[in-house]
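Human:
Focus on the backbone:
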Amino acid sequence: MAYYIYIMASQKNGTLYIGITNNISARALAHREGRGATFTKKYGVTRLVYMEIFEDVNEAIAREKELKKWRRQWKIELIESVNPDWDDLFLKLNH
């Protein structure tokens, strides 16, 4: 089974949310529809802008905790290192 660490954003340089899931398509869709988390619904965090894949759930959990401790600028640099335009990766998941 695969586990995903992901970052959602409200817009480029907007509000960020970091999460973990074993079904990235379903989880991203839930956030887009306002069913993901109270925080993401409140702040309109609907754009999947970054993700990493892990085979080991413990490694994924450790990485999520690590990223949540990072400074905001480091998170922005991480996103832009692979997604400079902050494209919504959800649109590419099933295509």
Notes: The mean pLDDT is 95.
